[in-house]
Amino acid sequence: MAAASRVIATVASTTSLLSRGSLRRSQTLSLCFNSSRLVAKKRLFTCTALYKPDVQIKEEGLPETLDYRVFFVDNSGKKISPWHDIPLQLGDGVFNCIVEIPKESSAKMEVATDEPFTPLKQDTKKGKLRYYPYNINWNYGLLPQTWEDPSLANSEVDGALGDNDPVDVVEIGESRGKVGQILRVKPLAALAMIDEGELDWKIVAISLDDPKASLVNDIDDVEKHFPDYALKVITETNESWARLVKRSIPAGELSLV
């Protein structure tokens, strides 16, 4: 069945997002609604982060080259992992989001989950750097301390398995972020994308620094019921990350430092 016909439900606020095409690489697309008022009753995994988000960015190599890396360092100059060492939650429903691809840019930056200290790098395909065919209209990033477990089948999304990556964030505010910038965001919606059988969550969020942030507090402002399911997704993937770093699950080629 074609991806367009696999959409479980369609809403105005997300239709414009999807129609722009940056999320079209998946073969199957689902929008998951909280029709049963699913509320994340479990606490997020409490992990004392090794470092606070007050970190510095250290670039190695030239942008838009195969060797380009964006590392995160603490105040002493020691490299840290943006995936493992930046805390996920800030309390009161606010989370850290690390910008990978700034708004109005096209280079497909991503976290290098299989490299020490998991720096940011530009994605490649067949040895060539990857780009969007246009500049995207939002900041694209990741939620630290989350992981989509490839051995865990999600019964609510066609039994799809996790894609072995942190959870992606689509930040819809009006300001353009920078590669490696840490934004404080609140989640508004959860989009489930299935790419060759792998579940790839997209959390739609807005930066607290955005002038319209106070006006967008629940899915009635973007679309009803998304925030609860978004929090559920964050909770589950945070727990998966916790099992990963505790080595309860084999890490394979993933770097845990």
UniProtKB/TrEMBL annotation:
InterPro entries the record matches: Pyrophosphatase, Pyrophosphatase_sf
Any one Pfam family match given in the protein's UniProt record, by short name: Pyrophosphatase
EC number of this enzyme: 3.6.1.1
Highest taxon, organism lineage: Eukaryota
Chain segments annotated as coiled-coil in the UniProt record: none
GO MF annotation list: inorganic diphosphate phosphatase activity; magnesium ion binding
Known cofactor(s): Mg(2+)
GO BP, sorted A to Z: phosphate-containing compound metabolic process
Keyword list, A-Z: Hydrolase, Magnesium, Metal-binding
Catalysed reactions, semicolon-separated: diphosphate + H2O = 2 phosphate + H(+)
CDD domains per UniProt: pyrophosphatase
Cellular component terms (Gene Ontology): cytoplasm
Entry's family note: Belongs to the PPase family.
PANTHER family linked to this entry: INORGANIC PYROPHOSPHATASE
Protein name: inorganic diphosphatase
UniProt lineage: Eukaryota, Viridiplantae, Streptophyta, Embryophyta, Tracheophyta
